[in-house]
Amino acid sequence: MAIRDLIPWSRTDYRVPAPFAVEQDRRDPLLSLHREVNRLFDDVVRGFGVPAFAGTERALLSPRLELGQTDAEIRVIAELPGLDEKDVEIVAEDGVLTLLGEKKSEVEDKDGGYSEGSYGRFDRRIALPRTVETDKASARFRNGVLTVTLPRSAAAADTVRRILIHSDAA
Question: Which PANTHER family does its entry note (predicted)?
Fold first, then answer.
């Protein structure tokens, strides 16, 4: 998160009095240029519905996850469009499930005289409860969707304690 995200007003809403802004720009023209270039990039990116540049690379390479749990298992579903199962690695270690992946794409057109490549890596870490049996975990990859199923131990149901909520009636 950038510091400017904590400011309660946006750049378009905040107006510096004209004499002060002109005086400040005269003192530091590079600051003025820097501010203007940042504004232009933010405007362009905002127009495409993409978040601002801070953290954008990670957001684009990070798969969307869906987590679900029942008394019997924990299920992690990751959307990985354009990847094959050979491009993905799953590791369960020290109470953490880690999904690793790398996408490589190269296109070469000899008639057009160009080649194009795109590369990207991601890793997602998910904390697991102690009651999961990682040695019995299974994974399935189909049509760009990875489903990891982690069964819970039988003792897990015994360790869950429901706490009743009492209301104070006046």
Answer: HEAT-SHOCK PROTEIN 20 FAMILY MEMBER
* Measured CA angle at 126 (ends 66, 154), to 5 deg: 90
**Mind spelling out the 3-state secondary structure of 47-75?**
HCCCCCCCCHHHHHHCCEEEEEECCCEEE
Q: Are residues 35 and 114 in the same domain?
A: no
Distances (CA, A) of 56 to 45, 48, 51, 52, 162: 10, 13, 7, 7, 41
**pLDDT tens string 56-92:** 444 446 788 999 988 889 999 999 888 888 999 999 9
User: Counting runs of H as helices and runs of E as strands, what totals does the chain give?
Assistant: 4, 7
DSSP state of 34: H
Q: At what angle do helices 29-47 and 18-27 cross, to 10 degrees?
A: 110
Residue 124: give its domain's CATH number: 2.60.40.790
